[in-house]
Amino acid sequence: MNKLFASTDAFSGQTITRILPVTGGCIHNCWRVELNNEINVFAKTTDSDSFPMLSFEAEGLQALNHYADQNHIIIPLPI
Predict the structure, then answer these.
(1) What angle do CA 51, 37, 28 make, to 5 degrees?
(2) How far apart are CA 41 and CA 68, in angstroms?
(3) CA distance 19 to 35
(4) How many Cβ atoms from other residues are within 10 Å of residue 52's Cβ?
(5) β-sheet bridge partners, residue 44
(6) Which of 23, 28, 53, 65 yields a CA-CA distance of 20 to 30 A from 45?
(7) Collapsing DSSP states into helix, strand and coil, what is residue 19?
(8) What is the pLDDT of residues 16-46, one digit of tens each?
(9) DSSP H or E stretch at residue 40
């Protein structure tokens, strides 16, 4: 499959081995992306009109990560 080109060195150049749909969302499409180094990544896709919502969500997750106590809650990091 294709190489994953991410802004994070931990994922750069990894090979995607499988992509599986994740259910439960109602606005965007969600996926579990399995990499060859046995790391799973959660990904979202949407149409171009809804893309600003994904950017807003990423900003919210970054803010939550800044203030959350990681001993009590794990919040995804956008890449």
Answers:
(1) 20
(2) 21
(3) 9
(4) 10
(5) 30
(6) 65
(7) strand
(8) 999 999 997 788 899 999 998 888 988 989 8
(9) strand 40-45
